[in-house]
Amino acid sequence: MGTPLAAPLSAQELTAELGRKMAAAALALSEVTAQLGQVALDAASGAAMMGLLERSHRAIAYGQLVVVQRAAAAEVHRLEPVIAQEIDELVAHPEELARGTAAIPTEQLRPGMAPHRNILAYMQAHLHISSSDGRRRITGAKLLVAPAKPVNDDGPSAAPSYPILARAAADGSADVGNLASVAGRLDSMQPRIKPRPDAGKVNNAIEESLVHEARNGEPKMCGKALQDWGSFLAENGTPLSDEEIRARRGCFYRGFRDGSDEYLLRCDPLDSETIVAFGEAWTNPRSLKAPPYSASTNPGPATSAPDDDTAAPAGGAATGTPRFSPAGAPAPGWAVPADGGDEDIPLSGMACGLPPEGPGLAALTAQDPRTSPQLLLDALVAACSGALNGTDISETGGMRVKIGVLIGYRSLLGQCEEAGLTAHNRPISAANIRRLACNGDILPAVLGENGEVLDLGREVRGFSKAQRKAIAIRDRGCIMPGCTRPASTSECHHVIPWLEGGETNVGNSALLCEYHHVQVHAGLITLKSIDGVPYVIAIDGQPRGAPQRNLYWHPELRTVGFTAPLFD
Question: pTM score > 0.70 for this model?
Fold first, then answer.
């Protein structure tokens, strides 16, 4: 009589078994890497260890994509915070899970307000990975992993969006992160590929070439392959579609380099024509429309204008705008015939007048040394300021744009040169702040040693404009640790609710972005005002620690004891 077959494991039992295996594998891998640091490797063993670790890394990376796909389908961002905390502790110390003396907790999803906005927010909070890494995993999970079949579905499994790339990711023959990245780029090319009658063959050919490069070359060669295929599509009747152009457009912040913020501006041809025409108007050397200097390029008060007919138009001397001859002025001497009379002297018929006296470009640059790109940038800054000043947009109520800056009073008065912070948390020198103060509105506020705003206003049901300005000065942005929403897109919140007797004053206030504001009202975040400053004292699902402030908006708190305080 044969041995009876074991009953197949249920989904819960299989998950528990996989959890034990993964815990044991994690512990074994940690042990191996610890031992590697204690042994001397020759060239052959070093090469073997690098290859084995890379193979392990790729298997783990593909497993991450699979798990992200399944976890997103299971709505992991709705997991009850207490259960999520238990899982974090179990993962941090997986010995009991590996031995089978502990088990993965039973799923409990929180009804109502989810503890996290989506799976990306969950991964950032619990795995502590960057948003770019999280998005890469989500993209890879969407495009390189076959979707899970519904329960009790005996039909064939669906294929991943890009099966050839998916096989290379699953077998570990290429870097999974690179494959996920190129899959996302290939997906963005589909509006050009799908209209073709041979779309399937083209997709397969592109995937094959990408896999070949990923397996045999550097990751950048995959980018070159995509570029070559893009050129092929453009030359063979499938140029970029309007849909793809619109999807790529935008203004992208590239980072702070060499003392300047860098942006990438990508726009469709219609928008580009507007910008080009705008730039031509402002950079035309024969035009009176030379833009005023911006706050960062203003060389200071201009010298007094000469007492002649070519004086600057109103505002020209103050802004440093070049002065040109007005319409109807006589032509300069070099344009007058040597033997001609007064009737032969041409007059300017152009609204912009004539260029100034002097040898062409040298005369122009002597009056305005800015290059064309610098002129265009100053024009854009001036245009943005003009729109926000309310000259064209009635919703602003005619209010001038306010550039929020935090600086100690000693620096503002010139007694020291400690840098300040803009409303978007960028350092700015004391000299530049004083320059802004000459032309901008100053919002005075007296702050205490901890940054609390003192002596403000009267109590009202809703926060007044003066109170909101003071709260923005104190908090600078959303007070939730790690949140990067500035004050301009955050809301004022009563730390002690109004209905529970909380007063409407600055000491009982906190700035919160819309998402974290809702979480506070849902009971997922607890706040407390300490000495007039709001702190986060509890986050549902996380162990209660010391009261926290958002160090993203308060970098000076990281270096307390090493640098002079911003405020005395």
Answer: no
